[in-house]
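Minutes, project check-in
Item: structure for the 249-residue chain
Input as provided by the requester:
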Amino acid sequence: MLTVAVIHRDAEKGRALAQRLALSASNLKVPMKIAFSSDPSTVASSGTPGAAPVDVVFLDASVDGLVESASWPNQELVLLDATHERLLELLRRKPVAALSVDEDDPLALRDALTVALAYVRSRKATPRLFNVHTKTRDLRVPYDAILFFESSRRRVILHTTRENDLVSFSATLDSVEKSLPPGLFVRCHQSYLVNAAEVSGVNRASRSLVLTDGESVSVSDRYYKKMVDLFSGGGRREARPSPQGEAKR
């Protein structure tokens, strides 16, 4: 099931595009769920309309700052109503296509949907990178280079094994968790999502996970038993206190 969001400030045009998308998906025999919003602010904080994660976002590029203010961890972007100059500005976002909602061009719409679908299928089949887009940076971080995600003041901080990749972006930890391949990352706290492969053990004294780089991440009461079951058995020894100090809280 492909999940698509259409965000356009003109409700009538946006709904018309959503209807044409549904027809195009039917012709391509692609099961698709479409969400529509005429409120650009729905993507400003998490990159998704409401709380629903999506695969492809058709976004009104004529709204100043909208594309720049939104972050999509792992979603494909189709720009709507972008002028030539605006399109050049937004190429670093790596959109899969650009369309005009005023042009009822079934072929162009089908092509955009086909390309986006190919990227989504490729990403889901072999998920290797976490994509981060901010106002100043565009990063593609290998999953095996990620230590953990930290939630702080309506932003998510990405901690990696590479110092230059430390970055924060506008999103919720829940939306990030839903975008990641299952089994690779574990939630140990309301504010922390950890790469399971980077956990060396559990420090019961401080109720924290000790990572392979020596850093510690706190475990809340809600997740403590699960973390002990996951990381204290199967030959993993109880970790000693981190030489870098107390766990993050």
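Outcome recorded: Residues 131-231 form a domain with the OB fold (Dihydrolipoamide Acetyltransferase, E2P) fold (CATH 2.40.50.1020).
No further action items on this chain.
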